[in-house]
Amino acid sequence: MGLFNWFTQEIAMDLGTANTLIIHNEEVAVNEPSIVALNRNNPKEVLAVGKRALMMHEKTHESIRTVRPLKDGVIADFNAAELMIRELIKLVYPKKPLFPPSWRMMICIPSSITEVEKRAVRDSAEQAGAKEVYLIHEPMAAALGIGIDVEEPVGNMIIDIGGEPRALPLLHWRVLYAIKVYVLPAMSLLPILWRP
Asked: What is the reported pLDDT for 59?
């Protein structure tokens, strides 16, 4: 059993509408735009992912299609998301290892996600090669990341500003309450939040 655990690697993934982050060995291993370039004639063939695919976006040959598989923080194109996740995971180890590891993944999901959308995230990760997939709400991950004791009986408001619709949840005793989603692009919040 211990030998098989040696081949299992842990990664954390933040699938964002704009960018995807992959944390491996407690450091950011991948920080790439959430976009993939596919061959129109063979949609399973990935030509580029991340920054290279972004450079092709809207400037491509007619046989190349660029896809942003996430919309509002959830998977809009299942096949493109699976291919993007698989290719981004390959960036963790630029040189192909002799024995590729199986992955144990922790994936951040928006607090307003539906059960169907959760299933799409889990299925995409499993199809991309994950042995185990754990989902965590983004506000909970943010609270744990900044050192908030989520077991403490106090309320904490977490504001997560990204490319998705805004969620302003109240976190109290490991439970998310009062989730309100504002459909605003993050850039439109800057004048409100930053007044010189």
From this structure: 80
CB 143 within 8 A of CB 158: yes
Rounded to whole angstroms, the Cα distance separating 2 from 178 reads: 43
Does the reported pTM lie above 0.85? no
Q: Which long-range contacts (CB under 8 A, 24 or more apart) does 48-53 make?
A: 49/83, 49/84, 49/87, 49/88, 49/91, 50/20, 50/87, 50/88, 50/91
Contact 90, 129 (CB under 8 A): no
Q: CA 22, CA 28: separation in Å to the nearest integer?
A: 6
- 18 close to 31: Cβ distance less than 8 angstroms: no
**Segment 145-188, tens digit of pLDDT:** 888 888 888 777 776 666 655 555 655 556 665 555 555 555 45
Q: In the numeric block, which tokens belong to residue 71?
A: 């919309």
* C-beta separation of 63 from 39 below 8 A: yes
More confident site: 156 or 43 = 43
Supply the Cα-derived Rg of the chain in whole angstroms.
Answer: 18
Secondary structure letter of residue 100 according to DSSP: P
The amino acid that residue 173 corresponds to is W
Segments making up each domain of the chain, as ranges: 2-94+102-149
pLDDT reading at 110 higher than 90 = no
The listed CATH number (3.30.1520.10, 3.40.50.300, 3.40.50.1000, 3.30.420.40) that belongs to domain 2-94+102-149? 3.30.420.40
